[in-house]
Amino acid sequence: APRTHWLFGDQLGPHFLDPRRDGPDAHAPLLMIEARSVLRRRRFHRAKAHLVLSAMRHRAAELDDRVRYIKARTYAEGLAEAGFGGGNGGGGRLTVCHPTSRAALDFVTARDGIDVLPARGFLLAQEEFGAWAKEHGGDRLRMEGFYRWVRREHDLLMDGDEPAGGTWNLDHDNREPPPRGSPALDVPAPYRPHEDEIDDEVRRDLDRWERDGEVAFVGRDGPRRFPVTRREALAALRRFVAHRLADFGRYEDAMLAADPVMSHSLLSVPLNLGLLDPAECVDRAEEAWRAGEAPLNSVEGFVRQIAGWREYVWQLYWHFGEEYRDRNALRHTAPLPGWFLDLDAEAVTANCLSTVLAQVGDTGWTHHIPRLMVLGSRALQDGWDPAAVTDWFHRCFVDGYDWVMLPNVVGMSQYADGGRMTTKPYTSGGAYINRMSDLCGPCAYRPTDRTGEHACPYTAGYWAFLHRHREPLSSNHRMARAVKGLDRLKDLDGLLEEIAERGDRAP
Ligand code: FAD
């Protein structure tokens, strides 16, 4: 008889059930466990809780008789209820695809009777990455080299041995400021799902749990914006490739206050729920380029995000090990201020930060530049504890999972790993935000002002950050020149005093 197969809530696509190549047994009965303790422990964004529950319950409805869906307090209780208590609890053998977090992996490997199958939903196996990493410098790995290797291995955007179009990297075409004078990009709107009775039921449950004081959330659970079924995910992918991919590249790093999505794909939620396989996403994009429907800079940019960054981050999560979570190379220890924890956009004067915090509160999503250069940069400049920042991102973003948060926040955003993930800290003064967005125009602060009533908190914070870490940063060849600039600042003392005076009040 086939072994029962346990599906985690981020393993919802058909590729998790394919019995070929070390998959679950053909026709295996399925088990899903909705464990409420996960929600109880931390204050998640309510839209995120909604998405995960809605996706799991939709999948269960599709699988119908084949799945046993158990609502329990914990996974252990759910397993016991399903008759897989292990030990004296009895039960047969279970299979499960390699989970996406260390905690879940430890849980399944520590129990008797569970066979862990290889991970799915990524392009490369961990062993393949391990071999590559060994060959390419162990600790000083770089995304670019990794990405080129993946392109060759998977024959992605290749013309024979050469990268399509003769170049690997079109980043320089993909950093344009937003078009001036227009509040939104002129591109067709992204796919929007329709809610159904399963969403209604999820809302009712969340209301009840909140009322009973069992769980507490942040953010608003407005109309659902992201796919939760395979059908919705495919429709979103199709719409993106057909109507929005062509403009993806050019404005990839730009921000517009009234158009938070711009040309981004909004595919991180269905990808991270396991509803889409990354291979199909990059293949569709490449087909669009080969058919002349999207320019190479956009297609290469999108392939780089998925086959490069997403895959790299997944591999590094396992490669760096558990200690990575607690890295704090810059010794930042300040707690997150209340206004930030509560997503209190109205408490914030700085227009960029207020706008982005409001987006997070409303949707649980912003694109990568607000995450990195507005939210993450604020945390870095103000010296907030990187583990607490990671926890905040994990809870507040609809696409946040342990594996994707750790390298992105500890490494990329907070430089808490001392440079294993990036070659320099990502932070900037207000000039960058001004160039790349329309957020500074209406702001009470001026990006050029370091001190005084109109001092931009990013500009002042940038110099204060360089000052605080002058010593380690001056030996970084990408930062040395910026650090030297400190010597020319006549108003550094005044600037530091003003920052100290602000304390953790909202800027
Ligand atoms: P697009 O811009 O359309 O990109 C296409 C896809 O590429 C994304 O859907 C995503 O799957 C993938 N991708 C791009 N960059 C990354 C990356 N750095 N890591 C992983 N995947 C990437 N992404 C998450 O999926 N979950 C997170 O919790 C998350 N946290 C982040 C935290 C910080 C501080 C930063 C700087 C980035 C984070 N990212 C995270 C990466 C990126 O911001 C989001 O994947 C992206 O904004 C999602 O929107 P999109 O689907 O429209 O992406």
TrEMBL record:
Gene3D superfamilies attached to this UniProt entry: 1.25.40.80, Deoxyribodipyrimidine photolyase-related, DNA Cyclobutane Dipyrimidine Photolyase, subunit A, domain 3, HUPs
UniProt xrefs under InterPro entries: Crypto/Photolyase_FAD-like_sf, PhrB-like, Rossmann-like_a/b/a_fold, UV-DNA_repair_photolyase
Pfam entry (one): DPRP
Gene Ontology molecular-function annotations: lyase activity
UniProt-annotated stretches for the region Disordered: 162-194
Domain of life of the source: Bacteria
Keywords, ordered alphabetically: Lyase
The protein's name in its UniProt record: Cryptochrome/photolyase family protein
Organism: Streptomyces parvus
Lineage, opening ranks: Bacteria, Bacillati, Actinomycetota, Actinomycetes, Kitasatosporales
